[in-house]
Amino acid sequence: MKHANIAVFIPHLGCPYKCLFCDQNRISRPGLAPPPSDIPELIQKHLSTMDRNQTEVELAFFGGSFTALPKSTQEAYLAMARPYLGRGLLKGVRLSTRPDCVDQESLDFLKRWGVSTIELGIQSFDDRVLYMSGREYSARQAERACRMVKAAGFSLGIQLMLGLPGDDEAAVYHSTRRAVSLAPDLVRIYPTLVIKDTGLENMLAQGSYLPLSLEQAVELSKEMYIAFQSHNIPVVRMGLHPGEELRCPGTVLAGPYHPAFGELVQQAVFKEQALMLLGDIEGETPGISKVLLLVNQRDLSKMIGNNRRNLLEIQQIMSFKELSVAGREDLNSDEIAVFIAGGSERRLDRKGFVKRRRDPINTGSGRYIEELKKTRI
Ligand code: SF4
Fold first, then answer.
1. Residue 372's Cα: distance from chain center in Å?
2. Pocket mutation for ligand 1, best pick of 9, 12, 101, 122 (most atoms within 8 Å of C-beta)
3. Which of 103, 159, 356, 370 is the most buried (most CB within 10 A)?
4. 94 in contact with ligand 1, CB cutoff 6 A
5. Nearest to residue 243, comparing CAs of 24, 14, 90, 74?
6. Reduced to 3 states, what is the DSSP secondary structure of residue 47?
7. Segment holding 97, helix H or strand E
């Protein structure tokens, strides 16, 4: 069964203030939040395009701090979903909010209104990063909010950012470890971008903030992604959705922006998985020179990499004379097989890869520590 959200963007509604790095009018969608009376039409429009036998649909309120809205406003929005929940046309309602804006009373309220998933914009579990990014809550508060959401029977989503002021490799791994320990039902990973007219733009101009490079952000996100995968925690998004506003020249002033950031991370994972498999084969069959990598047809671009980068790098590392890739339908998604001239074949699936790989969040290489220190003020 596929999952789909009918997204309702409520830019900054309920937010106690505008965070240092955030401008939802540029990140999600420009304009005002739709009034509750517009919601039924939106739901119907989306439902008419979906195969409901194959898709579980949730109404999703994103882009604000839903639980910080007055109860009457929350009710007005949630009431619009009720008839669809009652008829089984919606599976539930999901919303995003801040961890310091949930308490037992608000969770009981949301439960009564059919909310199923709560995504908490945690951003970091490191107190220094939270303080320097002006989040106004502690890591302990954030963890408590996560536990409360789970204990109340909601699906828990954790949103993490990397490259915030004060962040470094150790803090990213710490946050990842804490997130893993809380067993969320889903995770979103967002590298910090410097968006026009935000506090971070001023810090950048003053020289007190240095964003991550794209390469650093991909590398760190890859480590986070593997850590979550090794604990069977789905990462449903990496990188901001490249909406029209975000793609406008002058919106993203600095930082590791790429319209297909998640794809870049997936490519980095595929490269490493292929290297592990090829390393095994080379150990068993020294001197091989011609290798054919096989992946599911849908994974071809992830295996090849942008501008054939993965293939070129693997070939350089492994010193093969010939390295090529082909798609094969019998392979599972995220699985790689290697066919060697002479006939033998070996496979490595994602589960096997993450199981064998050193746990990066416990054994950080330190490769980026020096560079990331520059993000400290
Ligand atoms: S980061 Fe979240 S809480 Fe902060 S301004 Fe943006 S939407 Fe509101």
1. 20
2. 12
3. 159
4. no
5. 24
6. helix
7. strand 92-97
What are the DSSP calls for 293-305, one per residue? EEE-GGGHHHHH-
Low-confidence ranges of the chain (pLDDT < 50): 363-377
As given in the structure block, the two tokens for residue 136 are 């106004």
From 181, 114, 116, 119, select the one nearest 145 (Cα to Cα).
Answer: 119
Q: Token pair 């991370």 is at which residue?
A: 265
List the one residue out of 141, 111, 110 whose CA is nearest residue 123: 141
**Assigned superfamily of 2-259:** Aldolase class I (3.20.20.70)
Q: Where do the structural domains in the chain lie, given as residue ranges? A: 2-259, 267-356
CB 174 near ligand 1, within 6 Å: no
- pTM higher than 0.85: yes
Long-range CB contact pairs, 257-262, < 8 A, 24+? 257/193, 257/214, 258/214, 261/191, 261/217, 261/218, 261/221, 262/237, 262/238
Q: What secondary structure does DSSP assign to 299-364, as a single string?
A: GHHHHH-GGGHHHHHHHHHHT-SEEEEEE-TTSPTT-EEEEETTS-EEEE-HHHHHHHS--TTTS-
What is the CATH class of 267-356? alpha beta
Number of H-type helices and E-type strands within the chain: 15, 13
The tokens of 262 are what?
Answer: 């998640």
Nearest to 120 by CA among 65, 173, 180, 193: 65
Reading phi first (left if > 0) and then psi (alpha if -120 to 50, else beta), residue 354 is in: alpha
pLDDT number for residue 358 = 63
Strand partners, 221: none
Distance 53 CA to ligand 1 centre (A): 35
pLDDT of residue 367: 40
